[in-house]
Design goal:
mainly alpha, 0% strand, rod-shaped
């Protein structure tokens, strides 16, 4: 085989690989875009969940404070009130 023949074969192989790689690259781009969208959606969900958990924690703290105040009040008035 001559040098010119090898160059032609190399060119054909490179062109064939290029034609084959273009659709694969397009599909990979679509997969990457989908992954980015999922990541953003998960981040939004995480933020919403953290906000809801914060609200529940705040309510629990308020209930705990009310219960503590109630216990202190009933213990202070033990002789007057009896809880059965």
């Amino acid at each position: 085989m001559t040098e010119n023949g090898l160059e032609k074969i190399d060119g054909l192989i490179a062109r064939s690989i290029g034609v084959f790689a273009e659709p694969i690259q397009h599909k990979l781009d679509l997969v990457v875009e989908g992954q980015q969208m999922l990541s953003e959606k998960m981040d939004r969900g995480k933020m919403a969940l953290e906000a809801r958990i914060g609200c529940v924690e705040h309510k629990l703290d308020a209930v705990a404070a009310d219960l503590s105040a109630h216990r202190a009040d009933t213990e202070a008035h033990r002789k007057v009130f009896k809880v059965r």
